Amino acid sequence: MDSNIVPKSNSSQGRLIVFCDGTWCGPEHGTRTNIQLLAEMTGIDVESVKGPREITDLSRQLRAKYFNGIACNYLSYGMGGPADNIERLCLDIYRYIAQWYEQETEIWLFGLGRGAYALRCVVGMINNCGIVKDSNDDLCNLVHRTYLSPCKNDKPSSAQSIDFRKRASWDVVTPIKLLVLLDTLGTIDPDTTGYATKSPTLRDEIIPSTVDKVLHACSIHDRFSLFQPCLATKAEHRASPEVHEVWFPGCHYDIGRQHCQFFPGSWLYCIPSMLTGNVEPNHVLSNVVICWILRFIAREFRSQGVFQDLHWQISFLKKSIRTASTRTGSGDAYGPARTLQYAPFGRVLSRLPLVSRIADKASFIIPLRDRRISDGAANVMRFDMSNQPGDEKSLADLAKVDPQRYPSRTYEDWKAWKNYTANAEEKKAILWVGGATSSPKNGSIPLRLEPAPTRSLDSLKSFASSSNGADDHASIASVL
């Protein structure tokens, strides 16, 4: 047995934490996402190249593991290349949960993009077959095949599935206490009629009652048509799960804090990388998202013990949101002319007039489509509203969210739709970035910018250099 692995104990309730990063994410890809930061806050050494990226802390009754993002190239992504990788990832995560789960263990799941999609598939597997007591490969593979099956006998409500859960799985109704999703990307196929031979498929947007609380941060400004979000909701007439889905400003890579580069981070690609542009996330917007997550956890799980120095982390993040030197990234990197500089040797090619003119005409290279917020009651951050009386800075000002940098019309379309559907009281509501003039709904906590901590925070050091230093229309006050 590996010396780093601690056997299961017979102790009281503990927590089992899973972090699943997005495509092209992880230290090997030269990016440091919000998921990686959260993993580091638990004490996981994500930068380690030797051994598993996991931690067992019996003093905190905690076991946690970080799973790298799906590895594939740009071409294979568009051709469905991640399918097999997602299947393996789902099995690895389910097997890890089954291996270490004990009665009364709380499961917390955190995912970004395709990683969030994989976690939702794992949630479906648990809803279908439960958490098996024996984590052998054959049984875990059976759970996976049952989840993919369109047969009526394999549905969660079937007599066969109920009997399987009684015989093979732990007797627990809601094992997953927290599911945190950052802009879930994938396909929803309610009309699946045959066995899915590749990627697991979500049947609908419904999160099953095996989950207690759900946080989902969606991107307002992403326009890449292959990056359409899988929204989250609960079944009608059900009290659980408690779903908090908020639309945040920025593109997909801003929500997750993804540094996107065409070539791997290896020294072998040093020169090509220097000649190729990199997409940089907007750290102001990334900080808003992770601060929202941490404040929710601080409020709902007061004795959590998962994230170290939680309130210091939150204070640091809130200061960095208002720090003028915090980097605001590339903005929207889509569109032929914009994307050219991020292609191989793009910094050279984009300076050639002929190539630039051809790129301007080649709109088919990057299929673009504004996202649609179809629910008039959706929780959408009002990032264009100022902080508080006398404060001229809105989040749009702080993060430089303007039509030139973020040309998507999704937010404007939603506001126009809201203008026709909102009642008079909603239209009169004034929501400030730093504090609401009326009591926030759903127990939301207004943001107050306390002085930043004087001591440094180890888990935030790397992106400190970058930062330097559920309402139906949510401001930063109502989500932080």
From TrEMBL:
This is T6SS Phospholipase effector Tle1-like catalytic domain-containing protein. Residues 15-258 form the T6SS Phospholipase effector Tle1-like catalytic domain. Residues 460-480 are annotated as: Disordered. It holds the Pfam family T6SS_Tle1-like_cat. It comes from Aureobasidium pullulans. PANTHER family: PTHR33840, TLE1 PHOSPHOLIPASE DOMAIN-CONTAINING PROTEIN.
